[in-house]
Write a structure and sequence with these properties.
Layout (H helix, E strand, L loop, with lengths): L42 E9 L3 E2 L22 H6 L10 E8 L2 E13 L2 E8 L6 E8 L6 E6 L6 E10 L1 E2 L4 E8 L23 E3 L15 E8 L2 E9 L1 H6 E13 L10 E9 L8 E8 L9 E9 L6 E7 L6 E12 L10 E13 H4 L9 E11 L13 E5 L1
Parallel strand pairs: 1-12, 2-21, 13-21
Antiparallel strand pairs: 1-5, 3-4, 3-6, 4-5, 6-10, 6-11, 7-8, 8-15, 9-18, 10-12, 13-18, 14-17, 14-19, 15-16, 19-20, 21-22
């Protein structure tokens, strides 16, 4: 059988927001029978992470690039973001890197790991070094995508910090975020301590938390060491919604096997570095405004040239009626052009002997070149903004779909 050809017809762009406000907050706690190890102070902390929504980008609407922070409500767990892209099995948003800082004290770096207990999602860490004390918490997610991370205080950690993240991939399926607010307590809305210094509601710009001591004879359980975190996005994102043309869907089944994306700075497709370093300047405040004052990206000179990065590896049947969403994140401002490469199999609808149908074409590839500034009529790409593209698998000529399928279905950006 002859392989299918490449395709890439670009049509009008369809725009959608990622989903209303993506934020987090659900209550997770240590079980009553958990006990700290050792005779000294040992802290077991449970974190509940939240993320700001992606800003919707509208064609020709420059005002959409201006985004104001609204404290998230109602709270939705961070892993709900992964739920929107449940087919992207290679997502690695499984841990949170944090720094527990005190003024005039070296920061303590730790990692909250994500795991499940039954149907419940939990993020937890146990630290012998952490004492019963006040800390300022800064951090990022996912920790797996960063080669190294470091932090320095402003005039003091209570005033904010400079967070440096090295070796983040130029294109990644992961939503790279940094902490913009922290709160301790049993819930995001309440004041557990009753002191006026503790905000009644989690809000950006405030990073102070108080940990509760736990010993072997007096373990902390329940809500004693819950921490709620707010995150904001470092990268921009493209969301790809795949569907199949109605008439073609009646004749053939498309099973997507792989999505890959590579970034360029301009139409010459000049090679760029595979990884970048990010410097994030954070200014603490009590006004509830976004505390990030500056984000600087620089190429990681120790990395090689950019290559196609996988956004999806697996097998998913595309349909006419229900879009299949996939997401790729990228360094904003530095990369503006992309090539999306799709790999898929084509089956007929004869399922008498195979529930998938008979394989007509295997590992077909299609490439779409994407010039985001041109398609969305914007002069720059902003972090935390999502650019949504609808793609339809549509044959060029239906009458040519008889075996041996002489022509390829065209992936049209719509």
């Amino acid at each position: 059988m002859r392989p299918m050809g490449l395709m890439g017809l670009i049509g009008p762009i369809g725009l959608m927001s990622l989903i209303g406000l993506i934020s987090l907050m659900g209550l997770m706690s240590c079980s009553d029978d958990e006990e700290a190890t050792g005779n000294g102070v040992s802290q077991t902390l449970t974190v509940v992470p939240c993320a700001q929504s992606f800003a919707e980008v509208d064609d020709g609407e420059d005002a959409a690039l201006t985004r104001a922070w609204t404290p998230p409500s109602p709270y939705v767990l961070y892993e709900s973001l992964n739920g929107l892209f449940s087919s992207q099995k290679n997502l690695t948003n499984n841990s949170i890197g944090v720094f527990f800082t005190k003024n005039a004290t070296d920061p303590l770096q730790a990692t909250f790991f994500h795991y499940k207990v039954g149907d419940n999602d939990r993020w937890r860490v146990s630290l012998d070094e952490l004492k019963e004390d006040d800390y300022f918490v800064y951090g990022f997610i996912p920790s797996e995508v960063v080669t190294t991370a470091s932090i320095t205080g402003n005039s003091s950690y209570s005033d904010g910090a400079v967070l440096t993240l090295n070796g983040i991939k130029t294109v990644t399926p992961n939503d790279v975020c940094v902490v913009v607010g922290a709160k301790k307590g049993s819930g995001p809305e309440n004041d557990d301590t009753g002191t006026p210094e503790t905000p009644e509601r989690i809000q950006p710009g405030q990073f102070a938390v108080t940990t509760v001591a736990s010993t072997k004879d007096s373990p902390v359980s329940g809500t004693g060491n819950n921490i709620f975190l707010l995150f904001d996005h470092l990268y921009s994102a493209i969301r790809f919604n795949f569907t199949v043309g109605e008439k073609y869907d009646a004749l053939r089944t498309i099973r997507l096997r792989k999505l890959e994306m590579i970034a360029y700075t301009d139409d010459s497709k000049t090679k760029i570095k595979a990884k970048y370093n990010a410097t994030v300047r954070i200014k603490a405040n009590t006004t509830g405004t976004l505390p990030i004052t500056e984000v600087t990206f620089t190429p990681d000179t120790g990395s090689g040239d950019a290559v196609f990065e996988p956004l999806f590896n697996g097998e998913e049947t595309l349909s006419h009626s229900t879009p299949s969403p996939y997401m790729g994140c990228f360094v904003p401002g530095q990369t503006t052009r992309f090539t999306l490469r799709s790999t898929y199999d084509v089956y007929d609808k004869n399922t008498d002997h195979n529930d998938k149908g008979n394989l007509i074409r295997k590992e077909c590839t299609a490439e779409n070149y994407i010039n985001l500034p041109s398609l969305f009529t914007v002069t720059s790409l902003a972090r935390g903004h999502i650019y949504t593209i609808n793609l339809i698998v549509q044959p060029t000529y239906l009458y040519m779909l008889s075996e041996p399928d002489l022509d390829s279905p065209t992936v049209v950006m719509n």
